[in-house]
């Protein structure tokens, strides 16, 4: 491998491939493991600079933990390290999720398999609810943000596109806090691209190019937790009839069961839409924006961390993201909780989730599948 003045691409590949294979538990857990590897053990950077990178990552769209791997790779081995770190972290999850996608496409329609998936579908509702509560506590820093969140939720429930609700929350909230605190100087906020359509016609034929474009749009505007992906895909794929709510629920479960970024869910969904070509197109579309954002914005990290305008925008977008997650949760609950069996499974999942201090989504999904089989078959 090529030697960089700071380190080699081979050591970057080794660290982040290992993380990609064993990093379960979501973005917070991924970043904690990353901090242990690159700050504590290898001392590639100071803890303060690592925290600065986290803050900068939160200010741009894309999966936070994946973008952090790219920042760390760039810091250690330049722009080539950025790509090596990101790819090595993503690839294990993509391969595993792709295998799940193939198995689901081949055997998911069988009657003997459906009870397992019915149980998983009910459990996913509990997983999303927990994410909403955790993110909501973090996002609601003051009463003004609470009002903004309620307005965003109301807008989506009355037919406003979730994507525009998110962007309006970011723009209006930033203007409000800007005026309230009277910050001088022009705004230099980095706004996300307004790419997702308000509504989509039902399309009978799904092409690989359509899959790539859909996920490229989502990847270009995805703020917050990977679970926010649920709301975006509801708008982009479920409402136009390109994907069923059931398939979306099952994809979320697979994303929770695999290591690495939960956005590898894209690989699973792409496979359901157009096979292997769709899996590759969805994966490329989902992660390509992150590589570009990090590559372009890495030199601006110090300035971004000092911008109060960007801080306000991030706070407002985060609360908007929670609001659209609530909207998506309502929609998916209506499609997944349809009989007494699903109600029982959801009740057990919620009891486990709130009764166990550190509940593991993997155990929850496996338990839901088993309970689904028992209740629906007997």
How would you spell out the order of helices and strands? Answer: HHHHHHHHHHHHHHH
The number of strands is 0
With helices defined by DSSP (H or I, 4 residues minimum), what is the helix count?
15
Net shape = globular
- Mean pLDDT level: 81
User: What can be said about the biggest beta sheet?
Assistant: none
Please give the radius of gyration in angstroms: 20 Å
Low-confidence region ranges: 184-204
Give the N-to-C terminal Cα separation.
58 Å
Beta-strand proportion: under 5%
What structural category arises from helix and sheet content? mainly alpha
Helix content: over 70%
List the helices and strands and how they pair.
Blueprint: H1 9-22, H2 27-41, H3 47-58, H4 64-107, H5 114-139, H6 143-157, H7 162-181, H8 208-221, H9 229-238, H10 245-257, H11 265-297, H12 301-306, H13 308-336, H14 340-355, H15 361-377
Helix pairs in contact: 1-4, 2-4, 3-4, 4-11, 5-10, 5-13, 5-14, 5-15, 6-7, 6-13, 7-13, 8-11, 10-11, 14-15
Name a few traits of the molecule.
378 residues, mainly alpha, 15 helices, 75% helix, globular
Q: Would you mind describing this structure in some detail?
A:
This protein is mainly alpha-helical and 378 residues long. 75% of the residues lie in helices and 0% in strands. The chain has helices at 9-22, 27-41, 47-58, 64-107, 114-139, 143-157, 162-181, 208-221, 229-238, 245-257, 265-297, 301-306, 308-336, 340-355, 361-377. Helix 5 packs antiparallel against helix 13 and helix 14 packs antiparallel against helix 15. The chain is globular and about 60 Å long. Mean pLDDT is 81; it is low at 184-204.
């Amino acid at each position: 491998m090529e030697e960089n003045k700071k380190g080699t691409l081979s050591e970057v590949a080794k660290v982040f491939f290992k993380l990609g294979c064993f990093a379960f538990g979501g973005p917070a857990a991924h970043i904690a493991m990353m901090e242990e590897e690159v700050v504590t053990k290898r001392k590639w950077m100071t803890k303060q600079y690592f925290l600065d990178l986290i803050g900068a990552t939160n200010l741009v769209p894309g999966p936070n933990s994946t973008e952090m791997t790219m920042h760390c790779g760039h810091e250690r081995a330049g722009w080539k390290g950025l790509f090596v770190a990101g790819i090595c972290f993503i690839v294990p999850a993509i391969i595993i999720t792709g295998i799940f996608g193939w198995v689901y496409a081949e055997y998911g329609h069988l009657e003997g398999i459906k009870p397992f998936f019915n149980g998983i579908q009910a459990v996913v509702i509990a997983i999303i609810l927990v994410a909403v509560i955790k993110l909501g506590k973090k996002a609601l820093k003051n009463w003004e943000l609470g009002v903004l969140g309620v307005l965003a939720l109301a807008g989506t429930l009355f037919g406003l596109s979730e994507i525009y609700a998110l962007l309006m929350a970011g723009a209006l909230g930033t203007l409000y806090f800007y005026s309230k605190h009277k910050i001088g100087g022009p705004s230099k906020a980095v706004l996300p691209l307004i790419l997702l359509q308000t509504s989509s016609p039902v399309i009978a034929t799904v092409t690989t190019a359509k899959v790539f474009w859909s996920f490229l749009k989502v990847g270009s505007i995805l703020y917050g937790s990977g679970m926010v992906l649920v709301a975006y895909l509801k708008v982009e794929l479920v409402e136009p009839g390109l994907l069923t709510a059931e398939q979306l629920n099952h994809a979320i479960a697979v994303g929770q069961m695999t290591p690495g970024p939960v956005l590898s869910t894209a690989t699973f969904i792409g496979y359901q839409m157009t096979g292997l070509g769709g899996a590759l197109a969805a994966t490329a579309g989902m992660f390509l924006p992150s590589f570009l954002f990090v590559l372009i914005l890495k030199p601006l990290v110090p300035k971004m961390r000092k911008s109060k305008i960007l801080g306000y925008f991030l706070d407002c977008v985060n609360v908007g993201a929670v609001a659209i997650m609530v909207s998506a949760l309502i929609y998916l609950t209506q499609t997944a909780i349809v009989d007494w069996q699903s109600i029982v499974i959801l009740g057990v999942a919620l009891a486990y989730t709130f009764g166990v201090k550190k509940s593991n989504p993997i155990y929850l999904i496996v338990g839901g599948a088993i309970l689904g089989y028992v209740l629906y078959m007997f």
